[in-house]
């Protein structure tokens, strides 16, 4: 709230004279709106000059104008980033392991866990540091930009970050406001300017702002510099749209129309002057840069669950080994050997402590079962994978010249798990491009002329004499009750009104532009602005004759209760019909005011504007009183066309198993018509309407009856409005709230589609939250394009914003932004499906390869007396997850396409195969775990049995323990890498490079590591081991044989899967008939040759068949086509097949036909509903033979 303190006697004509002001401390007096004390405000001295020349000016301390959106600085980056990273449980766990290795005498070097942890921390720090550097660079571009400050009657150029509160700033056309300014003066005579707030809320429509009334004449640097004034305003707060103002004579009140926000752009105005009131991080734009709540995907929850399992495995291994070690040492013949230099006294002292340190040592030895590098790989996969969505050319829109945008890469895989889609209607399913269709005035309809003879608009009734005044009143209401402004044509060569330039309309509402384009000078006194709660707006004007009129327009539900009821009926008929046709409707009303009534309204509005507490509620009360007892004039109909392919997209989502709910603020009839047009509701869908037109005394018995009577085979839809929803979610005290809510939820979950109309923004979020918190926690997605959709976008698991005409507030607060609703199809069915499959495979693969890695280490302890002797060299322990096996799975998780993208988009049912987190359930997890255990056993015992032959080399020498571990490790690396190669369906040069390159790098590294004597190593235990190992023919044979044995189950599964897919392709060539008897009853697969003569395929595969066909088996019946208009028989009537008899005897099982199936054959119908009798000649001989082959006896042959 802002208060501009000015003396009522200021000489406005003298632009250079100082304007005398009242002392600032007078603001605390009770004369200001009756408030005794004002708190939470700040005082701004314009131009840094004190109000009184005798007062000493002490500059107040406000923040500077620097914008800081970055998280780190050069000095705090390292400690702050490390603190944030070690807050993650996995990183903290590996830090503890590293410290244990440093403190306790462990069998492995601290490098083995320290280096992988360092790699993960470094990569994450580099990524976060780079992102923060981009934010620093963006901040510097804003902070270092040049602005002009008026000082000492002249302009001084400064950097934007040096602006202080109280500075007078000059902004020119097409420049961005550097801070939040109080609008003082403009180059326009009327003291107005136009701005766009696209960077704030995305609304590209021009908004009109007004200068302070007393300073509009100060249009020069000298005049504005001579201004002496004080502004009192509320403390910074992030609300972009509500600025409470205070007024009391002789003070001047300021409102949102006087405040120019940082980030907005000046348009259609040469220049303006403003005083800075909020700067830097206290501007509204900066205060709106707050992080959204962190959303966790289902994959992340599965990872945490799997980690707990593997952590339990780790603890159990360490416990078993620790226990068995002391059991083994309890036998004096199995005590530790002398070379361990452990005396009996040392062994006996601090035995509990030694057991604990041994337990920690085993934990360190087996800790690689927890995949430390998985987190950084998953993070890199999500970060890099998000670019594929942004680069998708099919999701680029030529109209707005923009493509898809990823704001949150952490939810890529969640796109493949969506179960419920909540969508807005206007601007999401429709184009939000309004076209005036018709209007209704005093019960008579008017629309565009379609006759070229008379040239007049058509009406649906005779014109009456009094209609003329009503028509003029209606058009005046449309001309006055709006916020449309005229944007004048640009001047060319000093000429105004250039023939090639045209004036255009600008407004904050596209509906109003459509009405004004389709429609004497008045004095505008008051504007009662539109808001989503009131759902209407009003203006109070004074005519040239001195009459005072209030014009109001809004939704019918908002206007009808406030007009005289006898005037409603005729107009309501037109409004309902237009709504059923899918048009957006607005009702128009007026009220003539007396001078006394206007004075009362004016006084109440001024008092409400002065209020410091509950200002909005007091303003709404004045509006409510002023808009009572009006006269209804008429209504308008504006068409909002469906977006391209919105119907096809909804059909695809339904086919993919998703349930689509439409949440809109429109009236029920309009929304219902749109839902039919976009195929949310089918003609066969049975609708249950819960609206005020039904009795409010609906009891729970009715709901329970509906729940129990519905079956999953029948499609039901639900329609509910906001008021009914409030009764259900927030019932009165004498009702049982939980019962109604639970019953309502049961009904909704059984519906295939739900329409919620007349919804407030918070109600949309309530609906999403209600479904999200149901049993099973289904994955929800919300999509919308306007600011009223932000609440449900933030509430859903995945939020999608559409870059529409209602602004970018939805896209700014969303996880993903797309240009059009149709792009949702590919985003979910293709990208979502693939991302889920990729990351699910990545997670399972990481656990699998680490289990393969550490199980031989565990088994080795049984053969070394549980002495904590490592099986692998420290270099292999360190490099396994970092270099040898990380890049192939990363490339797989970025590039794999197990199914072609076009196939995924065209066949939505493939989406259901991976829904409900199918690939990360316990069953596939156990499969991967058992596979890893099986291969780990093969690795170890395969090499163990190889070592049963004491002579493996040509010279008769035997291999040592490090050679044993190297052979196991070699089989391990090749097996897990080739396993990934077997799983890869989509090969690119990148896959080939990383898979074969990783194997080549391992071989090269092993030769290099074992071929050099490293001076920093105390022991050269791997020297020449790898090269020496490969000199044995037995080793080569063992490696190849063990790799084949390990991969044989996978190869066998792939062969069987390919055979099954081929059989499936053959079955897909069969005609699939589903015969209905009230509900799905029988499914019959017949060869195409049996369907139509010549093997032609009938376009309709699903036909309804009545029960008489089964009740009278002796009659001949044919089943009609399910979609008669689009399915006409391509053959003459004599080729129609007749079923002469329906046998009740079971049929022998042949091929695809199940035993005991009652066979009904589809015949060509006439397109009429029901079952009818036809006659036709018998089938050809070859067809009869085919029928006999499939088990059709003579009784099944066609009759005459």
UniProtKB/TrEMBL annotation:
<dbReference type="InterPro" id="IPR006539">
    <property type="entry name" value="P-type_ATPase_IV"/>
</dbReference>
<feature type="domain" description="P-type ATPase N-terminal">
    <location>
        <begin position="59"/>
        <end position="113"/>
    </location>
</feature>
<feature type="binding site">
    <location>
        <position position="666"/>
    </location>
    <ligand>
        <name>ATP</name>
    </ligand>
</feature>
<dbReference type="InterPro" id="IPR059000">
    <property type="entry name" value="ATPase_P-type_domA"/>
</dbReference>
<feature type="transmembrane region" description="Helical">
    <location>
        <begin position="359"/>
        <end position="378"/>
    </location>
</feature>
<comment type="similarity">
    <text>Belongs to the cation transport ATPase (P-type) (TC 3.A.3) family. Type IV subfamily.</text>
</comment>
<dbReference type="InterPro" id="IPR032630">
    <property type="entry name" value="P_typ_ATPase_c"/>
</dbReference>
<feature type="binding site">
    <location>
        <position position="785"/>
    </location>
    <ligand>
        <name>Mg(2+)</name>
    </ligand>
</feature>
<keyword id="KW-1133">Transmembrane helix</keyword>
<dbReference type="InterPro" id="IPR044492">
    <property type="entry name" value="P_typ_ATPase_HD_dom"/>
</dbReference>
<feature type="binding site">
    <location>
        <position position="425"/>
    </location>
    <ligand>
        <name>ATP</name>
    </ligand>
</feature>
<keyword id="KW-0547">Nucleotide-binding</keyword>
<keyword id="KW-0479">Metal-binding</keyword>
<keyword id="KW-0460">Magnesium</keyword>
<feature type="domain" description="P-type ATPase A">
    <location>
        <begin position="145"/>
        <end position="284"/>
    </location>
</feature>
<dbReference type="Pfam" id="PF16212">
    <property type="entry name" value="PhoLip_ATPase_C"/>
</dbReference>
<keyword id="KW-0597">Phosphoprotein</keyword>
<dbReference type="InterPro" id="IPR018303">
    <property type="entry name" value="ATPase_P-typ_P_site"/>
</dbReference>
<dbReference type="GO" id="GO:0055037">
    <property type="term" value="C:recycling endosome"/>
</dbReference>
<protein>
    <recommendedName>
        <fullName>Phospholipid-transporting ATPase</fullName>
        <ecNumber>7.6.2.1</ecNumber>
    </recommendedName>
</protein>
<feature type="binding site">
    <location>
        <position position="665"/>
    </location>
    <ligand>
        <name>ATP</name>
    </ligand>
</feature>
<keyword id="KW-0813">Transport</keyword>
<dbReference type="GO" id="GO:0016887">
    <property type="term" value="F:ATP hydrolysis activity"/>
</dbReference>
<feature type="transmembrane region" description="Helical">
    <location>
        <begin position="925"/>
        <end position="947"/>
    </location>
</feature>
<keyword id="KW-0256">Endoplasmic reticulum</keyword>
<dbReference type="InterPro" id="IPR023298">
    <property type="entry name" value="ATPase_P-typ_TM_dom_sf"/>
</dbReference>
<feature type="binding site">
    <location>
        <position position="530"/>
    </location>
    <ligand>
        <name>ATP</name>
    </ligand>
</feature>
<feature type="binding site">
    <location>
        <position position="584"/>
    </location>
    <ligand>
        <name>ATP</name>
    </ligand>
</feature>
<dbReference type="InterPro" id="IPR032631">
    <property type="entry name" value="P-type_ATPase_N"/>
</dbReference>
<dbReference type="GO" id="GO:0005789">
    <property type="term" value="C:endoplasmic reticulum membrane"/>
</dbReference>
<feature type="transmembrane region" description="Helical">
    <location>
        <begin position="1036"/>
        <end position="1056"/>
    </location>
</feature>
<keyword id="KW-0472">Membrane</keyword>
<feature type="binding site">
    <location>
        <position position="664"/>
    </location>
    <ligand>
        <name>ATP</name>
    </ligand>
</feature>
<feature type="transmembrane region" description="Helical">
    <location>
        <begin position="875"/>
        <end position="895"/>
    </location>
</feature>
<feature type="binding site">
    <location>
        <position position="764"/>
    </location>
    <ligand>
        <name>ATP</name>
    </ligand>
</feature>
<feature type="binding site">
    <location>
        <position position="426"/>
    </location>
    <ligand>
        <name>ATP</name>
    </ligand>
</feature>
<dbReference type="InterPro" id="IPR023214">
    <property type="entry name" value="HAD_sf"/>
</dbReference>
<keyword id="KW-1278">Translocase</keyword>
<dbReference type="InterPro" id="IPR001757">
    <property type="entry name" value="P_typ_ATPase"/>
</dbReference>
<dbReference type="GO" id="GO:0045332">
    <property type="term" value="P:phospholipid translocation"/>
</dbReference>
<dbReference type="GO" id="GO:0005769">
    <property type="term" value="C:early endosome"/>
</dbReference>
<keyword id="KW-1003">Cell membrane</keyword>
